[in-house]
Write a structure and sequence with these properties.
about 270 residues; alpha/beta; Rossmann fold; 7 strands
């Protein structure tokens, strides 16, 4: 009896946080998993956990290290990967970097670095894989941005700029490929308990090195990944994930002035 090949998802930022949790959720639901991030050793650890902790067949896990800030070789990486796995069904963009500093105290080099990783790296990989999706008349881009892609708060000017840019790019792309079998889901998490604030860059480019209180008390990455999975299966255009913080999206939509006043008075760390 011939069995069909399981669907394949390619996950960036797969070595930790939401990306790692998504790898677990999709593996548990029978997907072949392509793990990408900068550190191959960390990806090997994730692979070992999927095999030993979740009973995933090692033949269904692939490792492809890449650096979102170094996108010149994304076309060749994608081509080599497709030769290896055959078909990719979902591209999940979970890689990125955050920022914590006043705009006036942030070097323009830091802004460029955040934009290079969070925006240009993401769209470069998207463009590398897009022909595969359009040729197959099938494929889904899942883009983890942030609630900061829908509104903005202090100490995150570069990060908010990059996340807003992602929404602009992918909404335009959505209109261009809607009749080619390609769908796009924008995922906007609120406070998720990952290391994002520990690794966030400050004004001079160094790491913040401390955990934001609200981030540390946020939703677990696994719960976030489970909600993402449900929304992506339904091919939702916009997936909001979080607790009470997602109410800010609706406040901003109907009462933008009120949201601005709330943001000015609310602690954002």
């Amino acid at each position: 009896m011939q069995t069909s090949t399981p669907k394949t998802i390619w996950i960036t930022g797969a070595s930790s946080g939401i990306g790692k949790a998504c790898a677990q959720v999709y593996a548990n639901n029978g997907y072949r998993i392509i793990l990408s991030s900068r550190r191959k050793d960390a990806l090997e650890d994730v692979k070992a956990d999927l095999i030993e902790g979740h009973g995933v067949n090692s033949n269904n896990i692939f490792i492809k290290p890449l650096d979102l800030s170094d996108s010149f070789n994304f076309n060749s990486i994608t081509s080599d990967l497709l030769k290896q796995v055959g078909t990719i069904d979902i591209m999940l963009h979970a890689g990125g970097i955050s920022q914590r500093s006043l705009a006036a105290e942030t070097s323009i080099d830091v802004d460029r670095r955040v934009m290079e990783i969070d925006y240009f790296g993401t769209i470069a990989l998207t463009k590398a894989l897009l022909p595969h999706f359009t040729e197959n008349k099938s494929g889904q881009f899942v883009v983890i941005t942030s609630l900061m892609g829908l509104f903005s708060s202090p100490l995150r000017s570069g990060y908010c700029g990059a996340k807003h840019a992602l929404h602009g790019f992918f909404e335009s792309l959505r209109a261009e490929v809607y009749d080619q079998g390609v769908s796009i889901s924008m995922v906007c998490p609120g406070f998720i308990a990952t290391d994002i604030s520990l690794n966030a860059v400050v004004g001079d480019g160094s790491k913040q090195g401390t955990m934001d209180e609200k981030t540390g008390a946020g939703m677990t990455p696994l719960e976030c990944a489970k909600r993402l999975y449900k929304g992506v299966r339904k091919k939702k255009a916009l997936i909001l994930i979080g607790r009470s913080e997602i109410l800010a999206v609706y406040v901003g939509r109907f009462f933008p002035g009120l949201l601005r006043r709330i943001i000015r008075k609310t602690a954002v760390t």
